[in-house]
Amino acid sequence: MSDVQNMSSRRWGAMLCVSLLAVANLAHAQFEFPDSFGGIGSSLSESKDPVSVSAEFVASKADQPAILFVTAEIGEGFHVYALDQGALPDGGGGPLPATINISAPKDVRLLGEWKPVVPPETHIDEEIWKGLQIREHAKTVTWFAPIELAKGVDPSTLEIVGKVVGQACNPQTCVPFNEDFQAKIGVGVTLPAGVQFTAAEGTEVTIPQSSPTVPSTGQSTEKLFSQQLGTAAPLVVESTTQDSFPHLLVLAFLGGLVLNVMPCVLPVIGLKVFAFIEQAGQSRWKIFALNLWYAIGVISVFMLLAVLSIVFRLGWGQLFQYPEFNIAMAAVIFAMGLSFMGIWEIPIPGFIGTSKVTEIGQKEGYEGAFAKGTITTLLATPCTGPFMGTALVGVLSRSPWQIMTIFFTIGLGMASPYILIGAFPQLIRFLPKPGEWMNTFKQLMGFVLIGTVVYLLTLLKPHFVVPTVAFLFGIWLVCWWIGRVPLTAPSSRRWNALGEGIAFGTMIGLVSFYWLAPILEQRQMRDAHILADAKFEQLLSEGTGEYSVRQEPWQPYSEKKLQWLLEHGKTVVIDFTADWCPTCKFMEKTVLKTKEMEAVFRDNDIYTLVADWTHQDSSPEVNQKLQDLGTQQIPLLAIYSAQNPTKPILIPGTYTIAGLTEQIRRAGPSLGGETKQGMANAAPGFGAVPSSGAGLR
């Protein structure tokens, strides 16, 4: 192809990208994507938040542990409820108490319970919760707790991350708040002398008279069960907390290497096989350069993922939670599939066009090699193979340079086979020689890519599927309209076709995401309400509302369900999964939901919950739970033992029936006594109707 045609193709590619981004931005506005991605998002309120939170910690001394201080500034006229705010007996309810959780780093462990510097104000409520003692703070409250830093940690460089959750109320309204804090070393708060902390292990930590302490109020403070769950350090099976950093890099390299044979990559790996065949007969330097550019494309995506992990705290594969990413990937893969099937020619130099293979005058270009590397890697992100689970557990708690190094090493591992073939091109001789068969192979690959689009559609919320299909039809028409103009046509004709295609694609996007999507969302909400009302009526008609968990295993996770089950002496298994995680689905089918494991769960009276992480905006409790457990990576199993519920056993990545069975036996069965199963099996969103007056607090 001539230089003029190459330049024209680049311009076409740039204009097409602008078109896709423009329509994606329209979808972005419709979907209300998170503001962290620079999107429009949904503004909750222009008013000032009623609660703001700050934090600091003081380092340990010879006679006292390190202490973490968290301060909440409460707006005029508002109050927040104390950490130990109680509830009426027999399920009578009560205000939402504040909770404090530390999410990172894993070098910090809470030694005892949180206490306020100044005790909360108390009074007996006579209106809403008649007879209940209300414990509340106004204006300013500072909580503190003893902490332990891991050996070798420099307090001057440490930043402790956490959040305070609760509700701020005034006489007219209550406003939920969820405030993050970052604590660095400081001077702390001067406290009266002489108090003993009750440590998590049941021992006592004494603060000397000369040190900052909290005054004794003469009242016993009962630590909330939710605080125990949120602050206790979990026990991790196969975790990286004891692994050296070089060992993690070895696992990261092996994990990246295995990604080449994971099912996520297989639909597009034919692109690279096709390129290898085309490279036959070229110079050794040319082959090495092309494969190096492919490797750079692979590694660049991993470096982008590292930046997203550092800046936005995104875990591996979490991009697939966002509809804009899935739709953009579906659009790109769909356009590639149409190109392979002969509808049009992708305007990227050297990216396998629509001409017959035997007639192609140009071989694979550097831009095409780079593009294929990036696309292959993006499709690989939902998969987690062997070694990667261990390498990625707790990665967000590491320093930025360590995160960058781990992701770079995974990318290097994935790219290593192509670098090896580039360095030793004689390996290509094992592949078939170019010929007419490649045309058929190329068209078959087009159907495989269309199948990948179907998979991406399954990751979308139901009311977005049809609008996205309509948008893809628009892209099909745009590709056909642009492709019908030959490269030898006058530039004015090509530009006209490009402009007309962009205009039509934008119109289809507007109709799809601004008209069709809202209609389908309203229908979905209506159907959901009808189903929920029917379920609620069923619960009321049956009186007790208690169902057997044996008949309905794997109920949707909620923190209230988990707390209720643990308070009643149940051992609980939580499966953290997502529809965009093929490894999760494979483990569920081959291990977690097999007859063997069902028997183990039944024999040990194990209760099972599923934490669905598919969509970012519909799983805030799952996000919070993963942060509390110190990871942002799935697959993940959390086993809460009835005997030791504050130290869950974590199993990241892949596992076997034998290994999981051993951990179940290690956790132990549910405790004997009264069994209350209703909460674990009630319709999500309604809870159970207690049969004996007992219920959630």
TrEMBL record:
Pfam families: DsbD_TM, Thioredoxin_7. The gene is dsbD_1. GO terms for biological process: cell redox homeostasis; cytochrome complex assembly. Residues 670-697 are annotated as: Disordered. One of its GO terms (cellular component) is plasma membrane. SUPFAM superfamilies: Thioredoxin-like. Residues 1-29 form the signal peptide. This is Thiol:disulfide interchange protein DsbD.
